[in-house]
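Field log, afternoon session.

UNIT: design team B
ACTIVITY: writing a sequence onto a fixed backbone
BACKBONE:
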């Protein structure tokens, strides 16, 4: 069993909450690790709950789920990493969405692998280790 930390992208947390083939595909990557999420993922999950007008029971499940993760907060070094990687991607003609850039910056700043199902969103980022699966969302 490893205590190595990994950061989960928002989609991975959603898959694990819902269960199903995608959750099963990523379970081997998360077992035995210290699981972290970024402050951005927390916000994205709350946004999803608001957007879909979740009831009290689903919101409580979200709150319980969030307690299972170390939440990586903003700090000055994350902001520095964010600036570098956004500029790097723009120079390469491959802009990155702001929330993806913040998540990547957290992983780079802490030198921790990022587990995501959207690897293409994080391509070309120096010093970012991405863990992904090729399972289809439709399976």
């Amino acid at each position: 069993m490893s205590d190595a930390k990994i950061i989960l992208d928002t989609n991975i947390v959603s898959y694990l909450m819902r269960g199903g083939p995608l959750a099963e595909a990523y379970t081997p990557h998360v077992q035995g690790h210290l699981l972290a999420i970024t402050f951005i993922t927390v916000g994205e999950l709350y946004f999803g709950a608001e957007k879909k007008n979740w009831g009290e029971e689903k919101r409580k499940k979200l709150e319980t789920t969030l307690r299972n993760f170390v939440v990586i907060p903003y700090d000055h070094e994350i902001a520095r990493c964010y600036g570098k990687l956004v500029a790097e991607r723009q120079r390469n003609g491959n802009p990155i969405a702001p929330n993806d850039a913040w998540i990547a910056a957290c992983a780079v700043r802490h030198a921790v692998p990022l587990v995501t199902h959207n690897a293409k969103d994080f391509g070309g980022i120096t010093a970012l280790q991405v863990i992904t699966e090729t399972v289809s969302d439709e399976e």
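LOG NOTE: Residues 87 and 122 are 14 Å apart (CA to CA).
NEXT ACTIVITY: expression trials, pending approval
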